[in-house]
Amino acid sequence: MANPSAVCNGHLHHHHHQKQNNLLKSGIYKKNGIIKGMKKNGISNGTLYKKTFIEHFEQAPMYVAVLTFLGFGVGTIFGYLRDFMRAWGLEKRNVAAEREQQKDFVPLYQDFENFYTRNLYMRIRDNWNRPICSVPGPQFDLMERVTDDYNWTFRFTGRTIKNVINMGSYNYLGFAETDVNALKTVTIELQKYGTGICSTRQEMGTLDKHVELEKLVAKFLDVEDAMVFGMGFATNSMNIPALVGKGCLILSDELNHTSLVLGARLSGATIRIFKHNNMQSLEKLLRDAIIYGQPRSRRAWRKIIILVEGIYSMEGSIVRLPEIVSLKKKYKAYLYLDEAHSIGAVGATGRGVVEYFGMSPDDVDVLMGTFTKSFGAAGGYIAGKKDLVDFLRTHSHSAVYATSMCPPVAEQIIRAMKCLMGLDGTTQGLQRVRQLGKNTRYFRRRLHEMGFIIYGNDDSPVVPLLLYMPGKIGAFARRMLEKNIGVVVVGFPATPITESRARFCVSAAHTREMLDTV
């Protein structure tokens, strides 16, 4: 097997020709960000990848970066000017101010901390938090709102904007639906159990529905056991502290989701960051961790755990799982895989990145995923070996303190999962997975042809389209809404300051006409 560190982001590093020759012999070579396994008689020849792996991270021309910084510079200068005018009473002060009696108090927050929100975000605030008044399917209805004071306050007009094409919701398989026949079982459970459980899993909150769902999740993922939680974000933030603690080392991808970051911080373990999807960076950290051990005492780390995501929700990139698994085995570390965006969305039958790369679920120590996206419900799961799940049933903060998942939500997940597995007697689930794949590749191809810079993997239903300039963020979203298309735009601090973007989420429920319109 080839040295996985020889394949890195976008380039081949070869210190001498020998390594290059070894790579060629072993069947891994790379060109334009594509990793391929050379085949002899159609059989992959000792490569980590069973299929071509194509990702795009095209750099913008230099003038775009210059104009972007210029845009932020102009915005900042005008921000200071307006703050000056507000201080001298030349402009109305819309932001909440401290009362005269409180002037001697220590301020709750520094005025400057709010500078960005007050002067830059406020100008384009109308593009976020828009209230929706229908199911977030392929199209939705939007409550119309206007502002009379440049986005400081909004008022509703009472009108609704109908049939806006929904390119923002994570409704990958189209299970966010209101079809009466589809929701029949959910309605029955709602009448039988009601909505709330009013207890935690360890007290009175474990229902037969939860047991049924956990068995189904374990069967779906082909693992020994699984445990479900009522909130997707908390699945990460409340369970990582139960698995690692002081004296442990967490190696985290630099683009990991906030829930993973929060979980890692709460655990009290030492955190080290590796460059996004970069195997050299990860291997260097692993090697250093084993050679040097803990700081000062130089004792060996109690545990080393690698935190990665299946699909990165802002980049649209897919984790390089085969290489990470080979590194994990080489250095005897644990692997925690967050499949929030990938479960249901990739893989021939929607079983996530493990299936996408043709690997075994046993290669991953902790499989985590959410039901909030592909399954159109709420909550999350952790799956793996029975010992792991039994440990979490006792020690997870979520199991001990958080209210259980409500029964109708559990039934919605069971319904969607059975549909995916074909247990409902139809091939509808498989059709949805295939339709999502077709829609994703079509949409990405069309955007490429139009000359846009888009990030990520060709098979990822998260499609970030780079806008760069701060002024474009608002302009793009407003223009799209005029054309009856709802899209999420993202800027700093959720992305690097120079990489503002619009993010499209493709769904199996989108028709070809809808995608063409977009």
From TrEMBL:
Occurrences of domain Aminotransferase class I/classII large (ranges): 162-517
GO cellular component terms given for this protein: endoplasmic reticulum membrane; serine palmitoyltransferase complex
Pfam families associated with the record: Aminotran_1_2
Membrane topology per record: Single-pass membrane protein
GO biological process, one term: sphingosine biosynthetic process
Coiled-coil portions: none
Record flagged with keyword Lipid metabolism: yes
TM region positions: 60-81
Top enzyme category: transferase
Keywords: Acyltransferase, Endoplasmic reticulum, Lipid metabolism, Membrane, Pyridoxal phosphate, Sphingolipid metabolism, Transferase, Transmembrane, Transmembrane helix
Location(s) in or outside the cell: Endoplasmic reticulum membrane
Cofactor (UniProt): pyridoxal 5'-phosphate
EC number of the protein: 2.3.1.50
Region entry Disordered, spans: 1-21
Pathway: Sphingolipid metabolism; Lipid metabolism; sphingolipid metabolism
SUPFAM superfamilies on file: PLP-dependent transferases
GO terms for MF: pyridoxal phosphate binding; serine C-palmitoyltransferase activity
Main location class: endoplasmic reticulum
Database matches in CDD domains: KBL_like
KW Transmembrane helix (keyword) present: yes
Entry similarity comment: Belongs to the class-II pyridoxal-phosphate-dependent aminotransferase family.
Protein name per Swiss-Prot or TrEMBL: serine C-palmitoyltransferase
Organism: Oceanites oceanicus
Name of the coding gene: Sptlc3
